[in-house]
């Protein structure tokens, strides 16, 4: 096992942009892995992480690119920070310490992540947060061999609260179209307000700076829920940032997040990704819903963190998570931006609608143009991808590959499909015309 003792550096670019990048290259593309929260909540222990890691290997998920095994909340003692100033690991749950677990995970050629909050306590309550203890905690994690930090946004003390609120439908009252006006929302930031002067910016940048001081590279994932206009400064601070409140294991939550993210995708490119939250594939979604969930998350270039018990995952769901065309799109190292809606479909373009978000999506990649047609309705619907509407394609015939089956569908002038309720038709279209 060789270590990459590299500092995380913010390198100025020729263009003048100065996004956060790492020396190792990790974090240029969306992170892939597994996280304990959606399945286990606080009921975690070393055995569950080792079992998940082993299962990632046995199912081929590791070979498909999933390489982070991430501990979420509740790894420490609920009694808070110890008298010596350090957070103590709950050794009932982790008898070998987190460093012991990290060594085993690294020996499986996987990486390990940990969790804290930019507040006085974590979200589950009682577990110490890292605000004003950033250097101590970052140094402990680095010494344990931690490779990834999910940094949450709970229990912010009054003296660290923002002066203004940012308009985000998950957190403040908005108009029905998702916008805010002084009539709907109190204490909105004035037009042109620079969120880099906010306390949220400072809270999250304190940890960025603490991680940068360590000689073990820790990827920085900001679980900031789309607040504080993270879209305008996230790229300079970490490699990904949550763009919404928490996902839950049902279809309405999936469409709600797709709808929100469709308005925030300008902030996504290499080195900085909107995190649409951890996957619920395997948790209470039908196969059609799991396909749509995964296809959209991959296409939006969200990190893809599996959140289920891999022992119980059906083969069809494993196949969805391993879909080679969608993973290749998500992990494309030549094209940075995500797929975006080119047409809303059931609703007029740019409609804000949580149950029926944009249905027609397209994005460029080195393998061709990925086109998704999501059916948000309750019944099977016929949908057509007309090349003239798809950015990056001209109206001549193009060769089409079915993303789900891998089948070559031939040289087509358009693609028409009957899409089942909540399912998504997904194709890869060659950019060059065919005859
Ligand atoms: C984020 O920063 C990286 C590295 O500087 C840059 O390549 C990328 O284009 C930036 N993203 C956006 C949306 O500007
Ligand atoms: C440590 O973990 C055990 C097992 O889950 C739990 O019962 C106990 O309450 C935890 N201890 C503290 C102090 O959080
Ligand atoms: C959203 O709704 C508000 C209030 O009804 C309206 O004033 C505003 O123009 C709408 N904005 C958009 C982008 O549709
Ligand atoms: C499971 O999904 C159904 C249908 O989307 C939903 O009504 C239910 O609340 C979900 N259960 C959980 C635990 O989220
Ligand atoms: C969302 O769109 C659907 C389909 O057009 C429509 O029936 C529904 O009323 C819309 N929801 C809201 C809250 O406007």
From TrEMBL:
<feature type="signal peptide">
    <location>
        <begin position="1"/>
        <end position="19"/>
    </location>
</feature>
<dbReference type="GO" id="GO:0004557">
    <property type="term" value="F:alpha-galactosidase activity"/>
</dbReference>
<feature type="domain" description="Alpha galactosidase C-terminal">
    <location>
        <begin position="356"/>
        <end position="427"/>
    </location>
</feature>
<dbReference type="Pfam" id="PF16499">
    <property type="entry name" value="Melibiase_2"/>
</dbReference>
<keyword id="KW-0732">Signal</keyword>
<keyword id="KW-0326">Glycosidase</keyword>
<dbReference type="InterPro" id="IPR041233">
    <property type="entry name" value="Melibiase_C"/>
</dbReference>
<dbReference type="InterPro" id="IPR013780">
    <property type="entry name" value="Glyco_hydro_b"/>
</dbReference>
<protein>
    <recommendedName>
        <fullName>Alpha-galactosidase</fullName>
        <ecNumber>3.2.1.22</ecNumber>
    </recommendedName>
</protein>
<comment type="similarity">
    <text>Belongs to the glycosyl hydrolase 27 family.</text>
</comment>
<keyword id="KW-0378">Hydrolase</keyword>
<keyword id="KW-1015">Disulfide bond</keyword>
<dbReference type="InterPro" id="IPR002241">
    <property type="entry name" value="Glyco_hydro_27"/>
</dbReference>
<dbReference type="InterPro" id="IPR013785">
    <property type="entry name" value="Aldolase_TIM"/>
</dbReference>
<dbReference type="InterPro" id="IPR017853">
    <property type="entry name" value="GH"/>
</dbReference>
<dbReference type="Pfam" id="PF17801">
    <property type="entry name" value="Melibiase_C"/>
</dbReference>
<dbReference type="GO" id="GO:0005975">
    <property type="term" value="P:carbohydrate metabolic process"/>
</dbReference>
